[in-house]
Amino acid sequence: MEIYRINDDETEQLVHRTEVIKNNLNPVWEPFKVSLISLCSCDEDRKLKCLVWDYDSRGKHDFIGEFYATFREMQKISSGNKVTWDCVNPKYKQKKRNYKNSGVVILSDLKVRNLYSFLDYIMGGCQIHFTVN
């Protein structure tokens, strides 16, 4: 799976690519870390485009489908509840009348951690006293 941030000028920037899981119709990817700045430029409503591929050892990977999400949607995950998106292949959607999706992507866990910088501590009132000889 590949996650792209859609920039203000409508260009797409690759943010993360998961590991390849071979010979599995229901892959479960390893947890990964992405900074909020990289993911969505700290804009919770910025559109993210997610592409899902089926690995092919010959190098011509098969496109399964895509979906769009926002970080705000991802945050709707709560204890016991999962967030899901239909993974849709636009070509199949045009050709097949009863086509619904090529599968479902499920977000089962999301953790947001604040990482504070030295300046954050100083601006928050932290005082440091030191002596240099």
TrEMBL record:
<dbReference type="InterPro" id="IPR000008">
    <property type="entry name" value="C2_dom"/>
</dbReference>
<protein>
    <recommendedName>
        <fullName>C2 domain-containing protein</fullName>
    </recommendedName>
</protein>
<dbReference type="GO" id="GO:0005737">
    <property type="term" value="C:cytoplasm"/>
</dbReference>
<dbReference type="GO" id="GO:0071277">
    <property type="term" value="P:cellular response to calcium ion"/>
</dbReference>
<dbReference type="GO" id="GO:0005544">
    <property type="term" value="F:calcium-dependent phospholipid binding"/>
</dbReference>
<dbReference type="Pfam" id="PF00168">
    <property type="entry name" value="C2"/>
</dbReference>
<dbReference type="InterPro" id="IPR035892">
    <property type="entry name" value="C2_domain_sf"/>
</dbReference>
<dbReference type="GO" id="GO:0046872">
    <property type="term" value="F:metal ion binding"/>
</dbReference>
<dbReference type="InterPro" id="IPR037768">
    <property type="entry name" value="C2B_Copine"/>
</dbReference>
<dbReference type="GO" id="GO:0005634">
    <property type="term" value="C:nucleus"/>
</dbReference>
<dbReference type="InterPro" id="IPR045052">
    <property type="entry name" value="Copine"/>
</dbReference>
<dbReference type="GO" id="GO:0005886">
    <property type="term" value="C:plasma membrane"/>
</dbReference>
<feature type="domain" description="C2">
    <location>
        <begin position="1"/>
        <end position="86"/>
    </location>
</feature>
